[in-house]
């Protein structure tokens, strides 16, 4: 087991270095275009070339590339991710304020996805090929195709026409759940449902096919033969084993979740990291954008690593295979 | 007597036997429609998309930026009050009608026309970026799998690492590094689709490499390049077509998301229309509904067609 853990960690180190290097290339080595944008909008210089020189010097880009790279990696490892060009404050400070809504949206997204996909996947599998299976699979295909931002638009329209209520559609202050649950859910419920259903559809398909496979196994047949109730057989014996491959998808889903977050936050004006990314790009505040990309990509890598390890812990065949 | 399907039996002379005729194209198509109705629907929508994009000047009824005006009921000549001095008003946010099949947007432009013209961006970006990505991905996957060994391991490690980088974030990086033109977006999307394509091509080539015809080709002295290009490549076209089709669906969605966020190329795009539409979605939802519907339909069509093609051509490719 230990060898497996060490192996997985070692395999992910080059990935981390690839992430850092790519963000470095984008932020220090390539951005002729970015410095031009920044120079034209943010400096007080009189002509464009002078402005570009000024910007490059400020950001330390006129030093040799390898010097910049080592500086950059060192900074990152020490937690210094640069300063916002607009507010001049450290990027991490800016991000700290904006992380809670995004994190909560992600968690709610996953909760909705699991709540939707697990029961539907199970029912669809144990009632395979009946009308209810076809109905649920048809819906799954449909929900899978609808992008989460379109689903959000539809839900918004429906909620407005039917109930007369909409979540706040301009940027409002975020109240976290313990302090004001009502306002918190008002802001996040609709986007979470839209994102969760879209994610849940793909989870449901996988869970259904895994359940079908597990239900054919001998140990399940033994459980039936012992005369156990259907509920017991499904939840205590089949479900646990069927969920394992679904976990591996969790790693991929985090990536999709993040892009969904960016879109949903922009749509519902939720003051989180996704919206911050978009507004920063539009305002040419590139250090913020690069820092966010670095943080998020690193989080995805660590999530994948964690999923790998949990998968190995749950399924002994993996560690010794 | 030779049976129509070429069976041999009593009464059939060996010298008269001929192999069975391949089914005609229409027959294969008919079988496809019957066996895979969803896939046929997808293919049908794709054909409609291509026709619409190509025939936009004819089908769109109006121009892209053409703003419409209606008579101003409050018009009074020589008046200087706002709302009264102009004989016409711009027909903003009009509901669907015979004149405007999908209604108008907030600048008075016909939504139906803009959706028809917008299909050009969707198809152009989707098909071009996947064509580029498939070309690169096939080259990488084919050479990596054919030569195996250290090269294969390194390339695969690199591809896996690249794939863990979320695609939207990579595209955001591209937008900060290069001007957001259509071509840069196409190149960015092509790069993003390379890892998954090369992985599938690689796994198929690893199987094809062991087949007898490859060994025979090597024995008669064919060069590696010739074997890869002349023998292996034609036999892996089926999975390539499948990943291409499904990939177009994914890329269309990515382009729509980027345009929706306002980070896409200038010019008309369904994602950008959805972004505009959401601003007044509560009062006149038609723009958002129709543009989002167009995106969903296009993505669904390519996904369904790709799924059906995969089931028909090579079920081994299933997840």
Secondary-structure topology with pairs:
The complex is a heterodimer of chains A (321) and B (319).
Chain A (H helix, E strand, L loop, with lengths): L1 H28 L2 H11 L5 H11 L6 H14 L12 H36 L4 H15 L2 H16 L17 H35 L2 H8 L4 H39 L4 H10 L3 H29 L1 H5 L1
Chain B lengths: L24 H11 L1 H18 L1 H4 L9 E3 L16 E3 L20 H37 L1 H15 L3 H11 L4 H27 L3 H8 L4 H12 L1 H25 L8 H10 L6 H28 L6
* Helix-strand makeup class of chain B: mainly alpha
Radius of gyration of chain B: 26 Å
- Describe the sheet with the most strands of chain A: none
* Helix/strand class of chain A: mainly alpha
Percent range for helical residues of chain B? 55-70%
Describe this entry's structure for a reader.
The complex is a heterodimer of chains A (321) and B (319). By secondary structure, chain A is an all-alpha fold. Chain A has helices at 2-29, 32-42, 48-58, 65-78, 91-126, 131-145, 148-163, 181-215, 218-225, 230-268, 273-282, 286-314, 316-320. Chain A is built from 13 helices and no strands. The radius of gyration of chain A is 24 Å and the shape is globular. The model of chain B has no long low-confidence stretch (mean pLDDT 86). Chain B has helices at residues 25-35, 37-54, 56-59, 111-147, 149-163, 167-177, 182-208, 212-219, 224-235, 237-261, 270-279, 286-313, and strands at residues 69-71, 88-90. Chain B has a two-stranded antiparallel sheet. The interface between A and B is large, with 49 and 44 residues.
Offer a quick outline of the entry:
The complex is a heterodimer of chains A (321) and B (319). Chain A is mainly α and 321 residues long. Chain A has helices at residues 2-29, 32-42, 48-58, 65-78, 91-126, 131-145, 148-163, 181-215, 218-225, 230-268, 273-282, 286-314, 316-320.
């Amino acid at each position: 087991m230990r060898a497996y853990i060490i192996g997985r960690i070692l395999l992910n180190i080059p990935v981390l270095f690839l992430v850092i290097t790519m963000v470095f290339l984008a932020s220090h080595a390539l951005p002729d275009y970015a410095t031009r944008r920044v120079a034209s909008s943010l400096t007080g210089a009189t002509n464009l070339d002078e402005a570009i020189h000024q910007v490059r010097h400020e950001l330390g880009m006129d030093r040799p590339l390898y010097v910049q790279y080592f500086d950059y990696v060192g900074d990152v490892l020490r937690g210094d991710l640069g300063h916002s060009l607009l507010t001049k404050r450290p990027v991490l400070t800016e991000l700290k304020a904006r992380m809670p809504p995004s994190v909560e949206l992600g968690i709610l997204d996953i909760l909705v996805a699991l709540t939707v996909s697990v029961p539907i996947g199970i029912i669809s599998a144990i009632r395979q090929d009946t009308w209810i299976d076809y109905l649920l699979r048809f819906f799954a295909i449909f929900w899978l195709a609808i992008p989460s931002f379109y689903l959000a638009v539809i839900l918004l329209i429906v909620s407005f026409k039917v109930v007369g209520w909409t979540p706040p559609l301009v940027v409002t202050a975020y109240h976290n759940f313990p302090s004001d649950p009502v306002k918190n859910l008002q802001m996040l419920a609709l986007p979470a449902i839209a994102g969760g259903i879209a994610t849940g559809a793909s989870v449901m398909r996988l869970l259904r096919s895994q359940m079908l496979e597990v239900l054919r196994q001998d140990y399940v047949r033994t459980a039936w033969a012992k005369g156990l109730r259907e509920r017991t057989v499904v939840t205590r014996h089949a479900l646990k084993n069927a969920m394992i491959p679904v976990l591996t998808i969790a790693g991929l889903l985090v990536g999709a979740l993040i892009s969904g977050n960016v879109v949903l936050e922009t749509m519902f004006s939720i003051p989180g990291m996704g919206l911050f990314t978009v507004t920063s790009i539009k305002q040419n505040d590139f250090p913020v954008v690069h820092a966010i990309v670095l943080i998020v990509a690193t989080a995805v890598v660590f999530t994948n690593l964690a999923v790998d390890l949990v998968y190995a812990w749950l399924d002994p065949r993996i560690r010794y295979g | 007597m030779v049976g129509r399907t070429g069976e041999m039996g009593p009464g059939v002379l060996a010298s008269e036997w001929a192999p069975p005729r391949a089914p005609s194209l229409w027959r294969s198509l008919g079988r496809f429609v019957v066996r895979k109705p969803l896939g046929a629907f997808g293919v049908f929508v794709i054909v409609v998309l291509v026709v619409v994009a190509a025939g936009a000047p004819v089908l769109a009824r109006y121009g892209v930026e053409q703003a419409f005006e209606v008579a101003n009921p409050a018009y009074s000549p020589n008046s200087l009050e706002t709302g009264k001095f102009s004989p016409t008003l711009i027909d903003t946010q009009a509901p669907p009608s015979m004149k405007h099949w999908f209604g108008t947007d907030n600048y008075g432009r016909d939504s139906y026309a803009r959706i028809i013209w917008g299909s050009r961006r969707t198809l152009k970006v989707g098909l071009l970026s996947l064509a580029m990505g498939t070309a690169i991905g096939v080259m990488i996957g084919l050479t990596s799998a054919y030569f195996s060994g250290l090269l294969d391991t390194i390339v695969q490690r690199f591809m896996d690492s690249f794939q863990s980088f979320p695609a939207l974030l990579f595209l955001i990086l591209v937008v900060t590094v290069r001007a957001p033109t259509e071509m840069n977006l196409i190149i960015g999307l092509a790069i993003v689709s390379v890892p998954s394509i090369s992985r599938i091509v690689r796994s198929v080539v690893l199987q094809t490499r062991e087949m007898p015809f490859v060994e025979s080709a090597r024995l008669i002295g064919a060069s590696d390049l010739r074997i890869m290009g002349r023998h292996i490549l034609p036999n892996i076209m089926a999975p390539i077509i499948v990943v291409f089709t499904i990939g177009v669906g994914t890329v269309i969605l990515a382009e729509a998301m980027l345009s929706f966020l306002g980070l896409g190329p200038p010019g008309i795009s369904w994602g950008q229309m959805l972004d505009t539409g959401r601003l007044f979605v509560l009062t006149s939802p038609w723009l958002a509904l129709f543009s989002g519907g167009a995106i969903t339909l296009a993505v669904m069509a390519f996904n369904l067609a790709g799924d059906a093609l995969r089931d028909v051509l090579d079920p081994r490719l299933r997840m």
